Amino acid sequence: MANITPTGKSIAQIKKDLLNPATTSHFLMSVGTPSDGGLQRFQTEIGLNFNTDQQERLNLLCSETALPGSRLSTVESRNHFPGVRERHVYRREFDDIINLVFYVDADQYLPIRYFESWMNFITGSTVTDFPGQRGIEDPTFSYTMKFPNQYKGSLELTKFEKNLEFGGVGRTKRITYKFVNVYPLAVSSMPISYNTSRLLKCSVGMAYSRYFLTGTPQRALDETATDLSQFEIDLAQAPKSLSLVEIAKRNSEISGLGRPNLSPGFAVPLKFDGLSGSGIG
Questions:
Q1: What is the CA radius of gyration of the chain?
Q2: Domain coordinates of the chain in residue numbers?
Q3: Mind listing the pLDDT tens digit for each residue in 114-129?
Q4: Of 60, 52, 160, which is closest to residue 105 (Cα–Cα)?
């Protein structure tokens, strides 16, 4: 093994390697519903009309979560070599749950209704009577659980920075955690009182089997495409090595103002309200 010799660093290297740290306040959570179509009826029962707009709103209301972790389980071997303890990996273990904290909107209490309806769907907790099954108000009601493949959904957590990559020039590439076999395991109690008003938050624990990482953009930038704006073409044709001033100028054009006229497949630049960790388009 070669010895590591300390070497001098230039100011430019220090700025490049140390003065661009990631922050914790730029992320986006995307919660996917189960593939079984029966969930909509349980949402309607508790006054939730869930659609695409509501889905985007729910994702933006997620104000706090944690990037997941995992560990490797090992088995020890002490007898192969005298005085040496070896460890060999036999499986990978993931965290049991991921906790999501949502701001609760004053319009329809969207996060509460959404996850309560999902848990009602899992347990068959319905107000309306079914043939051969009584509603939950009946004293003799009993829970009838769905099969796992009916109630498991999806979950994606994307981490990015202010200078989110757009066009591949001087941008930070996002990283996305995709979770497998996701469903709500617990909705925490939410204290309310006549004391000083505070923001109402809904904390949900989501169970999952495993996660994996992706970093693939929504689409590759095709410079021959006819639906690209001149702004996007300029970014694609820009030199790969730009000065700090040029990079800062282009970052401000993308992340600070927001542009509603992006071509299909490109995410709208995000603005931030200072309260939530989520982006607000």
A1: 24
A2: 23-77+87-220
A3: 999 999 999 988 877 5
A4: 60
Torsion of CA 8, 14, 17, 20, to 10 degrees: 170
Global confidence as pTM = 0.69
The DSSP line for 121-179 is HHHT--SS-BTTB--TTSTT----PPPHHHH-EEEEEEE--TTB-SSSSS-BPPEEEEE
Q: Give residues with Cβ within 8 angstroms of 261, minimum separation 6.
A: 229
Q: Are 156 and 216 in contact (CB under 8 A)?
A: no
Q: Can you read off the two tokens belonging to residue 52?
A: 């695409």
Q: What is the pLDDT of residue 219?
A: 41
Cβ-contact 166, 77 below 8 angstroms: no
Q: Which of 138, 186, 118, 182 is nearest to 156 (CA)?
A: 182
Per-residue pLDDT tens over the stretch 238-261: 544 445 455 555 555 544 444 444
Residue in 208, 160, 119 with CA at minimum distance from that of residue 22: 160
Q: What is the mean pLDDT of the chain?
A: 77
Q: Specify the pLDDT at position 250.
A: 55
| Per-residue pLDDT tens over the stretch 31-71 | 988 877 788 888 888 888 888 889 999 999 999 999 999 99
Would you give the end-to-end CA distance of the chain in angstroms?
Answer: 51
- Give kind and range of the element (H or E) at residue 74: strand 70-77
- Does domain 23-77+87-220 bear CATH number 2.30.110? yes
Decide if 33 contacts 58 (C-beta within 8 A): no
Residues 6+ apart with CB under 8 A from 62: 28, 29, 31, 100, 101, 102, 277, 278
